Amino acid sequence: MLTQLTVSNYAIAERVELQFGKGMTALTGETGAGKSIVLDALGLAMGGRADAGAVRHGAKRADITATFDVSAIPEAGDWLAQHELDDEDDCILRRVISKDGRSRAYINGQPCPLNHLKELGGLLMDIHSQHQHQSLLRKDTHRKLLDEFAGVEGLAADTREAWKRWHHIRQRLNERQQNADEAEARLQLLRYQVEELDRLALEDGEQEQLEQEQAQLSQADTVLHSSHQAALLCTEDENNAADLVRQALHHLEQLPVEVPALADTIQMLNEAQIQITEAGDNLRHFVEDYEADPARLAEVEERLSAIYQMARKHRITPEELPELHQRLSAELAELDGGEGSLEQLEAELDEHRTRFDELAGQLSEARAGAAAELDQRVAAELAQLSMPNMQFITHLNRSNGNEPAPHGLEDIEFLVSANPGHPARPLAKVASGGELSRISLAIQVVVAQTSTTPTLVFDEVDVGIGGGTAEVVGRLLRTLGGNGQVLCVTHLPQVAAQCHQHLFVSKFTERDATFSKIEILDDQGRIGEVARMLGGVDMTEHTIAHAREMFSKGQATHH
């Protein structure tokens, strides 16, 4: 719901701050006073096209900020969260337009692309005007309204998800079928490569272990000789290390006096004697047990040669061979009778198509029943709006047979026929601006209980009507406001008298400059404005009395 609008230096408005609540808000004023400023500013806040002419003469930039309460709009809340722009229950859309025509967009204080304003704005507000860009002229809006009216949004979402899965499998199958020859060649190559790697059966870390073993085996004579010499030097030679350490200890132990400073040194020599003796024993046992194994060396070198040759063949390092083996095996499994085989893909495609057909069939049945009821109820509202001959048809068209589509099996479009006997045609090709606004109003009244758009804006929905029909329009707008929030620009006192909130737009000249002013009217002000709309400039007591009666009736009717 729109809660606040702030407009600075836009058109002839220098500074406008407006608070909005639930219900129906009417904007009235003399022609040229600037009633369109509010709606145009809202359009810009929601990503509408801007130009330099939007900036007030003499100002550097125009600044428009619209604040919404999104606590009751889960779709908007989800969108904000998805884009990491959520800020509790408030949503602030801002648009800054410079005098050279460039503009910047912000959501909750964060710069954003203009299309983000459009996406989010479409979840917050729907503007019905006499311009061709309004949402009622789009088929996706027709489908959305019908699905909401039928209460099948969840079923429609499930159908869309089923289509996505079916479509994904079909794309994979088409790719496989189109590249069948290449796929078969790839399959044969994979089988050969995987068989080679299977035979090699290289384990992680095996190559490193083999290289270490090969280094030891190839230097067996050197290792044996050096170990034997080391054993002699430790304990077996005439001047071996163990004897030399014993001699050093003997000299220190024969000192005539005890020297505390040498205690640690004597301890270290004792430990060294023990360690040298143990090292000598270990070396002796190693030399006695050590056997050179030429056969094992040949076996290790042959294994390493096979590993190196396989790595060169695939142009990778030996360390990468296990990962390659795993990857090629997985690809082979997918192509050769696994998840990606033609037979498996065809089976999956049939399975997903069956699921889609089941959901889409339920959706089509629900839509057909709802469409008939929607047509009947919209026709009843159109009759109240002095359009009794206007035929409204929700057309479900299966032009593609039963070919799956994201939205189901049929295209949905609202058609109208203004005259009996004439074929129904799309809204954009038949309805005039005023008719389109009233058709919009009729549809919105019918779907008000199910529509997820909380704020509806109607620009001059009452064009070309008057009398009792105008009163009906006002009553319908107020009914819509009772279920959410409605803003309307109107020239008719019968409509203005029924609003919950009344904004009066006027303009004045000061220091050779023109300004627009918007004020919220109290009850007396509202009666005066209704009188002006009834009688023009010269208002008589009779006109004022008529306005008071109309205002009282408009407010009392709905209590």
Automatic annotation (TrEMBL):
CC terms in the record's Gene Ontology section: bacterial nucleoid
Coiled-coil intervals: 173-200, 328-362
Database matches in CDD domains: ABC_RecN
Keyword tags: ATP-binding, Coiled coil, DNA damage, DNA repair, Nucleotide-binding
Keyword Oxidoreductase: no
Pfam families associated with the record: SMC_N
UniProt entry tagged with the keyword tRNA-binding: no
Span of domain RecF/RecN/SMC N-terminal: 2-507
Alphabetical GO biological process terms: DNA recombination; DNA repair; SOS response
GO molecular function ontology, one term from the record: ATP binding
Highest rank taxon of the organism: Bacteria
Family label: Belongs to the RecN family.
Task of the protein: May be involved in recombinational repair of damaged DNA.
NCBIfam families, A to Z: PRK10869.1, recN
Protein name: DNA repair protein RecN
Organism, scientific name: Marinobacter gudaonensis
Classification lineage: Bacteria, Pseudomonadati, Pseudomonadota, Gammaproteobacteria, Pseudomonadales
